[in-house]
Amino acid sequence: MTTEEISPVNLSDSFKAYDVRGLVGDTITAASVQAVGAAFVEVLGLAGETVLIGGDMRPSSPEFSQAFAAGASSRGANVKLLGLISTDELYFASGILNAAGVVFTASHNPAQYNGMKMTKAGAVPLSSETGLAEIRDLAQSYLDNGLPAAVDTPGTIGEADVLQDYAEFLRKLVDLTGSRPLKIVVDAGNGMAGMTTPAVLGDALLPGLPFDIVPLYFELDGTFPNHPANPLEPANLLDLQAAVIKHGADIGLAFDGDADRCFVIDELGGPVSPSAVTALVARREISRAKAAGEERPTVIHNLITSRAVPELITHDGARAVRTRVGHSFIKTTMAEEGAVFGGEHSAHYYFRDFFNADTGMLAAMHVLAALGEQEGPLSELGREYEPYVSSGEINSQLEDVPAAVARVRDAYTRPDVTIDELDGLTFTATNGDWWFNLRASNTEPFLRLNAEALNTTTLTTLRDTVLNLIRK
């Protein structure tokens, strides 16, 4: 890299706690990606090792993949270009091949964004505390001072396709061949599920399953011409809900852009909460682990999943472990505890059999298996796992977040409320009627409220009272 080519990019603008996300051509460029590729190999000591590189359907992903490959191979890593992949395909490949890697994606962010999710060999998570900050700092020095000359023996660059192996691996984990016939509407949001759904649930690569799949927006298009690939926003589920009703489907599935998260819609068009999906999948994984001789399996859940989740885990004779929000916390705790499964309110689902990594497709397969092995509709099945009423996440943009938190804490510091500080502040009524959590955003002036109660009346009163204190 010559002096004229040195990028003005400040990597602190795109490096987050667990991944990298930035505006293409502004906070993330081909030059910055090449520097990160070189730093990735140096920091993790990957000279002579295999590095996996793939990307989603965003227009910049191919260029960025090539740039990262150039940087990584210049430091002696042997690159395997995986082409178009979902994020959980990278985790699969990293786990099965025991190789470090990166996928270029900005998940559910708009089209003008791209980013990097990086993993160590074996799909071990990489965060700012476990190497990501060092990679950022070394890459920044390369950007500021120029890349060093290539090592004497640069690495090779080849190609590999892991889609069929990924599909076969998932099919072995959940046997769907005995399911009753199901009509399934899948909204891929023009994201990577448009490629992975036909491979795993359809007959594109493997024998067909007893499913009639109605595709919505399966065309891979990183400009997202139909709606943002963010199913967490209710507006982005409207097309799927309408299609489920129109086609008389048994279930609807919505994936985000990189297909690592999955949201579920029942036959009436109603959302099945990620907490309910967590509980349903937990029950299946607990049962399977016990059948294999595990006396008391462990299941991880973050602190803002429904109270129904740990209650069901305990009821089924397993151990519930509560953790902070965020995939690196979940993955780390999964490994430490030997947990069979973990779930988050954000529809990230983690499996021991999937290298402790998250995969929306495997979670969807568990829901399909549960639905397909009984005759009742999904609305009835889901009701069993949703005994409480939840607010969902409510964000308040504030000038003074700490002051708002202090007001709420002062109001609820009383004998009938317990307060814990595992992640933000969680307030719980000692009589069990309600709880709520306040968490400040790490990157924006937002305060996030999640609340749950025994009934709608109690929840409404609680929500409005807390919001009035927050926004005072």
From TrEMBL:
UniProt key word Phosphoprotein: yes
Q: Is Magnesium among this UniProt entry's keywords?
A: yes
Sorted alphabetically, the keyword list is: Isomerase, Magnesium, Metal-binding, Phosphoprotein
Domain Alpha-D-phosphohexomutase alpha/beta/alpha residue range list: 14-140, 165-269, 277-386
Pfam families per the UniProt record, alphabetical: PGM_PMM_I (PF02878), PGM_PMM_II (PF02879), PGM_PMM_III (PF02880), PGM_PMM_IV (PF00408)
InterPro entries the UniProt entry points to: A-D-PHexomutase_a/b/a-I, A-D-PHexomutase_a/b/a-I/II/III, A-D-PHexomutase_a/b/a-II, A-D-PHexomutase_a/b/a-III, A-D-PHexomutase_C, A-D-PHexomutase_C_sf, Alpha-D-phosphohexomutase_SF
**GO terms (BP aspect):** carbohydrate metabolic process
Q: Which CDD domains match?
A: PMM_PGM
This protein's superkingdom? Answer: Bacteria
Molecular function terms, GO-annotated: intramolecular phosphotransferase activity; metal ion binding
Q: Which cofactor does it need?
A: Mg(2+)
Start and end residues of each Alpha-D-phosphohexomutase C-terminal domain: 393-467
Family the UniProt entry places it in: Belongs to the phosphohexose mutase family.
Mind telling me what this protein is named?
Phosphomannomutase/phosphoglucomutase
Q: Which organism is it from?
A: Arthrobacter psychrolactophilus
